[in-house]
Amino acid sequence: TVRSLLGSAVPLRAEDGSVRGSVGAFVDITERSIAERTLADALARFDAFMATTPAIAWVKDAAGRIVYVNSAWQRALGLSEADAIGRREADLRQGELAARLDEIDRRILDTGEPLTAREAHFPSPGDELPRWWRTTRFTFRLQDGSSMLGCVAADVTEQVRTEDALRASERIAREAQHELEQALETTRRTEEKFRQAQKMEAVGRLAGGVA
Fold first, then answer.
1. What is the pLDDT of residues 28-43, one digit of tens each?
2. pTM here?
3. Backbone torsions φ then ψ of 43, nearest 5 degrees
4. How far apart are CA 211 and CA 207, in angstroms?
């Protein structure tokens, strides 16, 4: 069995300064090394997952400061990790939006209740139209008992735009149907008037024949 040891040694010197030996002590840290490798492997898997997921993810502390953002967040906002860490919403967004997001974050931290919503305040760099995200905010606790706020957001822009286009098509279809019904009603009334006119003409001819 291979063991991991942590060692420390010092030389033993003679009166003339020459080295005549050494004294050392070694501590078996096998279990600690295994735990450290296991943790490193877990962190590597987490980093790989968060770097490749298309979903936005961020973590804030109880004071609202950002402590973690993934690659998708950085691409969506056009900011680097260094630009985000330690910053608050007010440092990254305009007044009213930042205040609203801070209020939502504070409510979730106070209640511990997660919140899922559809939001449109993550415009992509160079995109004239805002992109829509389905966000889920939630709290979790660290070993020291402190609360953190996490958020995961999936891009649903194409779904929203498709839904908007579908609603627009349905509205156009309803308007066209209404116009068609009006046209049919107008045609019906015209036909009715025409039939009435024919009847009156027939009556007139009959009256003329009788006369």
1. 999 999 999 999 999 9
2. 0.64
3. -65, -40
4. 6
